[in-house]
Amino acid sequence: MDANITKRNELLAQRVIKGLASRNMSGYYAATREEALAKALELIEPGATVTMGGAMSAHEIGLVKAVQEGGYHFIDRDKIEDKRAAMLAAYDADVFLASVNAMTEDGVLVNIDGNANRVSAIAQGPKKVIFIVGMNKVCDDVDGAMKRARNVAAPINAQRFGLATPCSKTGSCANCKSADTICCQFLITRYSRHAGRIHVILVNDNLGF
Asked: Which three-class secondary structure state does DSSP give residue 88?
């Protein structure tokens, strides 16, 4: 990545980390995907039960593969026939892997979900939540983060899943009530009541959608 962009990301990440700390959440900065992977694995205890929601960023840094092949109990809902059982098991997991649809410079996390298994596990249940977040997802404020989630992340995901939503055709949010909508639940995480539960690894890269 360009040295000027990297410097900007480093400075911005420090503001984000400070904001996260003020909200009882832990933030870290990784200059590379490899550093992000190492930090994530450092946060996961050997033998831990690990699961995840949809998090392309975790795949992109190699974290999902590392957990699958490491000394962990990985609940892989893609390989379990009973999807509901796999989703419910997430609430009692030691670690939940996730990303954000967007977040603010002062540490507010914004996520939109269709089935709610991802946002509900972020809000309550797993003992620890580890977010892998590319610096491309950091926005000025909550309004900007919501706009990114609805007009960037949601249309791309709708297209990725082959859904018949207006945004999959136009590329921008229509505030629809389509049967296929993935914008059913909105979660804004502005504070964590439980210290040591939420960890955000900011990566000097463009990750996810």
From this structure: helix
